[in-house]
């Protein structure tokens, strides 16, 4: 009799678990994240990797909510079902092998599934390839601004064909095309900085010395102006170390690069393709910085 009762309880628990799994599957096919503000995750990613990270977060939150609902449901069911009804103690069970097997294996399966999808998305975010049509940009951080060097290939042996240099008076604008793979090669002239564009839903530290931190995005899917910031405390004017990523069409990008090769400044090249010459998402801060604060190599 006891064994049949235990089997019945396990069957009910298995049914609840199957229902929770079906709920996760159903909700996973809906845009639930948008309805609830992304569950705390920033919305508006403009790259395929950003969208995959967003989907991973939404799936993880839905799974957590389903597990939480199941656990709380079982707690309240036990509170009601086994509440005190008299002075006689209920039947005391020393162990229940099916139950113990279920609550040991179920968390392991949940962790394995989350680990698998996290590893898949992380591998995709860190992936680089040998696409010959990719755009390569060398990101140089220094206290307290940015220099962007457009390169003719990957690695330290490539040549810089054009540069954009920020100053105390002008926010540097990094112009990139939509629909093409972008490679970022980062280095610092002094301390650790961090290259961060919120709409990429991604940031990566910029290290001094001979370390070149590299990452790529499959493409930028939307034209527009996106603010960029240093996300690593790097000194007095860290909070003022901003830049702007300007995503334009491939045609405009080629015209911009040609103007830069012909000797135009970044501002003049932006005017030539019908874009705002100065950053629109952020502006220079009123500081006491002087030209002597900056000593990067290269320039406009």
UniProtKB/TrEMBL annotation:
Catalyzed reactions: 4 Fe(II)-[cytochrome c] + O2 + 8 H(+)(in) = 4 Fe(III)-[cytochrome c] + 2 H2O + 4 H(+)(out)
Protein name: cytochrome-c oxidase
Region (Disordered): 275-300
Annotated organism of origin: Phytohabitans maris
Main location, first listed in the record: membrane
Signal peptide start-end: none
Domain Cytochrome oxidase subunit II copper A binding: 132-259
Family of this protein: Belongs to the cytochrome c oxidase subunit 2 family.
């Amino acid at each position: 009799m006891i064994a049949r009762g235990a089997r019945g309880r396990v069957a009910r628990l298995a049914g609840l678990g199957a229902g929770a799994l079906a709920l996760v599957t159903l909700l996973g096919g809906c845009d639930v994240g948008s309805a609830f503000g992304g569950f705390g995750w920033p919305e508006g990613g403009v790259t395929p990797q950003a969208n995959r990270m967003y989907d991973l977060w939404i799936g993880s939150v839905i799974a957590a909510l389903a597990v939480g609902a199941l656990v709380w449901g079982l707690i309240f069911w036990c509170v009601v079902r086994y509440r005190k009804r008299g002075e006689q103690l209920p039947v005391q069970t020393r162990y229940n092998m099916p139950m113990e097997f279920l609550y040991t294996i179920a968390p392991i399966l949940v962790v394995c599934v989350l680990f698998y999808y996290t590893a898949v998305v992380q591998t995709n975010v860190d992936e680089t390839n040998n696409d010959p049509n990719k755009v390569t940009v060398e990101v140089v951080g220094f206290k307290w601004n940015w220099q962007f060097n457009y390169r003719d290939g990957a690695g330290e042996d490539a040549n810089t064909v054009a540069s954009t240099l920020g100053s105390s008076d002008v926010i540097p604008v990094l112009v990139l095309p939509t629909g093409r793979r972008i490679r970022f090669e980062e280095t610092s002239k002094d301390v650790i900085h961090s290259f961060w564009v919120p709409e990429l839903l991604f940031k990566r530290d910029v290290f001094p010395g001979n370390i070149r931190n590299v990452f790529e995005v499959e493409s930028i899917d939307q034209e527009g102006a996106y603010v960029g910031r240093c996300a690593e405390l790097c000194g007095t004017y860290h909070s003022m170390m901003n830049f702007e990523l300007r995503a334009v069409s491939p045609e405009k990008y080629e015209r911009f690069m040609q103007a830069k090769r012909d000797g135009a400044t970044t501002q003049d090249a932006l005017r030539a393709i019908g874009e705002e010459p100065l950053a629109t998402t952020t502006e220079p801060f009123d500081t006491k910085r002087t030209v002597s604060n900056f000593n990067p190599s290269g320039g406009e």
